[in-house]
């Protein structure tokens, strides 16, 4: 009987990918849209959580708070309504600091790879400024952990009617233990 319990436990651990043993993904990428989704009674955005390496709806009472969303900044012009990408931290604490802007992916990548520690004097804002291609951001999460983000792609799409929305693709490295030093 004990052998069956041990085997069942091993299978459950293997099936879950042992995520709770190894912790969150320390690097990866995500795509965030500024287009709101219509829920049962309200709109929500899809955000990303570093701790869970998952996408969650915000605001949505059944989902945990994501670490960031692409709230987008509405712009009304001659071609109708559009949005510029902009990060927001739903936890309303800490936030984002821009640490580099570059003309090419090569320059941005070199800086991103070489940026090893979030310096202590960064000023974090809950809402970022407009997010642009080839920028490098540091985020301090509501848990007090750090992530560095490299903006690798931004696309604009037609939404309903005359509105437009955008999607931002970022590569990230996450430090889940509160240290300002980023793993290689």
Task: Please provide a written account of the structure.
The chain has 184 residues and is an alpha+beta fold. Helices cover 15% and strands 42% of the residues. It is built from 3 helices and 13 strands, in the order ααβββββββββαββββ. The strands form 4 sheets. The protein has a 5-stranded antiparallel sheet, covered by helices on one side. β3 (43-49) and β4 form a beta hairpin.
In short:
This protein has 3 helices and 13 strands; from the N terminus they run ααβββββββββαββββ. The chain is α+β, with helices and mostly antiparallel strands and 184 residues long.
Topology:
Elements: H1 2-15, H2 19-22, E1 27-33, E2 37-38, E3 43-49, E4 54-58, E5 69-70, E6 73-77, E7 80-84, E8 86-88, E9 95-101, H3 105-114, E10 127-130, E11 135-140, E12 146-158, E13 164-175
Number of domains: 1
Number of helices: 3
Low-confidence stretches: 4-20
Please give the order of strands in the largest beta sheet.
1-13-12-11-9
User: What integer is the average pLDDT?
Assistant: 86
- What best-fitting shape do the alpha-carbon axes yield? globular
How are helices and strands ordered from N to C?
HHEEEEEEEEEHEEEE
Round the Cα radius of gyration to an integer and report it. Answer: 19 Å
Classify the beta-strand content into a percent band.
Answer: 35-45%
Distance between the termini: 45 Å
Number of strands: 13
Q: Please summarize the sheet with the most strands.
A: 5 strands, antiparallel
Task: Quickly give the structural class.
Answer: alpha+beta
Helical content class: 10-25%
């Amino acid at each position: 009987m004990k052998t069956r319990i041990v085997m069942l436990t091993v299978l459950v651990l293997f099936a879950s990918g042992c995520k709770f043993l190894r912790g969150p993904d320390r690097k990866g990428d995500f795509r965030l849209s500024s287009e709101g989704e219509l829920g049962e009674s309200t709109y929500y955005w899809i955000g990303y959580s570093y701790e869970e390496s998952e996408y969650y709806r915000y605001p949505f009472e059944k989902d945990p708070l994501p670490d960031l969303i692409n709230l987008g900044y509405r712009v009304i012009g001659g071609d109708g309504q559009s949005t510029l990408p902009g990060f927001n931290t739903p936890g309303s604490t800490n936030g984002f600091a821009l640490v580099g802007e570059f003309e090419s992916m090569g320059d941005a990548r070199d800086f991103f790879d070489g940026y090893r520690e979030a310096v202590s004097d960064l000023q974090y804002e809950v809402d970022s400024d407009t997010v642009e291609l080839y920028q490098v951001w540091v985020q301090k999460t509501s848990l007090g952990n750090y992530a560095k983000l490299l903006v690798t792609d931004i696309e604009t799409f037609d939404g309903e009617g005359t509105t437009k929305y955008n999607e931002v693709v970022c590569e990230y490295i996450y430090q889940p233990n509160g240290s300002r030093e980023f793993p290689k």
